[in-house]
Amino acid sequence: MTGRPDQTSAPWRVGVLFSSSGFMAVIEETQLRGTLLAIEEINAAGGVNGREIVPRLYDPASEAAAFGHFAKRLMVEDEVTTIFGCYTSSSRKAVLPVVERLNGLLWYPTLYEGFEFSPNIIYTGAAPNQNSVALCRFLMDHYGPRFYFVGSDYVYPRESNRIMRELLRANGGEVAGEVYLDLRCKRRDFLPVMRDIRESAPDVIFSTVVGDATVDLYQSYADARFDPKLLPIASLTTTEAEIRAMGFDVGEGHVTAAPYFECVSGERNSSFVAGYKKRYGADEPTNMCVEAAYFQVHMFAKALGQTNSMDTDILRPMVLGSTFDAPQGRVSINPGCSHADLWTRIGRANRRGQFEVVHQSVNPVLADPYLIGYGRSVLCP
Fold this sequence. Notes:
Layout lengths: L11 E6 L7 H20 L8 E6 L5 H13 L5 E4 L3 H14 L2 E4 L12 E3 L8 H11 L3 E7 L2 H16 L3 E8 L9 H10 L3 E5 L3 H12 L9 E3 L4 H7 L1 H4 L3 E4 L8 H14 L7 H20 L4 H8 L3 E4 L2 E5 L6 E2 L3 E5 L5 E6 L21
Parallel strand pairs: 1-2, 1-3, 3-4, 4-5, 6-7, 6-8, 8-9, 9-10
Antiparallel strand pairs: 10-14, 11-12, 12-13, 14-15
């Protein structure tokens, strides 16, 4: 597996790191499913150059340090050079030094806070300019300028809120309150948060809560009898998976920005949704994270078919600039920053557990993870 293009029928081995247990399993399990579905499709079509893809799976159980540990095991003991995995930024940052030191390639299918580049990571989730900018504009136009920040206490929420704070201030808005809770917090921990929100009287609750705590946040909101028509929870991290877990009635009316929703029209998405439901159950929804996990495997396979090599130095240049007709629409890997050029959409959850798209970009939005194209004075044009 060192990249020799010798003729062989040996399988292509890849690593997969998503949590099937722990507090992040509610979303990472769907990313695992998307990854395996894509691998199954590729193998059913004959594999890559006649060789099947065989995944080596580990369950980091929602512990960031375990991601780094298993990444090292994959590369050193299992002799894998390509890894699909990670949801939280903490887990990505645990894997990053491993793939850089051992020259592997991590495919990261999750939205994140931006302001990072590594030649050993392909970022296929949304960067801030592909979700935060449009969401800020939409919320200020439709609800008001005062945001209350509530997030899980780790890298992504704090950095995402830093960006949203800049967006607000550049456009005359303000932060009415800000609070962070432990990743393992329980429903009772949101009670004082709801009281503070009532006292602060914001126009919008901006949530960067992740994992099981997402369900507790929205259910606590419903218990407090807030009205999403007047004070919605707007999030970059709440998908159809979390809406299903919290209850469709609880999620109704709340807002999410994402490149993909299950309701996206088009034959490509219809085929993807049908295949996913056939494989995992008719009542299992897709979401932005499973879609990114799915299309990135197909993009990997396309590049691998052209290079016939797993060597990162050979494979990566073929990935950069490549395109794929994903369920969300055509996407590409921006050669300037190794991030995907993705669609921007804003959806409002309905009583069926789906998002109705209320805004979408005309074309894919070029990845700009450092917000270079947005200046520092008016970030929300």
